[in-house]
């Protein structure tokens, strides 16, 4: 009698999900850097939570901005196991919205 071995098979990689999640994290890093530059040039942060963080030392701003982004992104990746299509849509909207915010921040730096 042959004994069957239990094998763990990883689910197939969803390239779109990974690409969108990576783009979202990277755009948030760009957003943070551009926000600091824009505020340094006299712009006002519109998000009241981020505005409060900008009053703290920059390491506090960076730490919280990046940790919140990574935590939220990880939660979406885990949710994609059950709701892949919905998570891909959510991440697509978030990437587009964050890219637009980056453009607004860039205008605050340049103008």
Shape verdict: elongated
> Structural class, judged by helices and strands?
mainly alpha
Main sheet properties: none
Order of helices and strands, N to C? HHH
Structural Rg: 19 Å
Helical content, roughly? over 70%
How many domains, in number, for the residues? 1
Please count the helical segments.
3
Low-confidence stretches: none
Oligomer classification: single chain
Number of strands: 0
Q: What percentage of amino acids are in beta strands?
A: under 5%
Any overview of this molecule?
α1 (15-40) packs across α3 (58-110). The chain is mostly helical. It has helices at residues 15-40, 48-54, 58-110. The longest helix is centred in the C-terminal third of the chain and has 53 residues, at 58-110. The protein is 77% helix and 0% strand. It has one domain (15-110). The chain contains three helices and no strands.
Topology:
Layout: H1 15-40, H2 48-54, H3 58-110
Helix pairs in contact: 1-3
Can you tag this structure with a few keywords?
mainly alpha; 0% strand; 111 residues
Q: How would you sum up this structure in a few lines?
A:
The chain is an all-alpha fold and 111 residues long. The chain contains 3 helices and no strands.
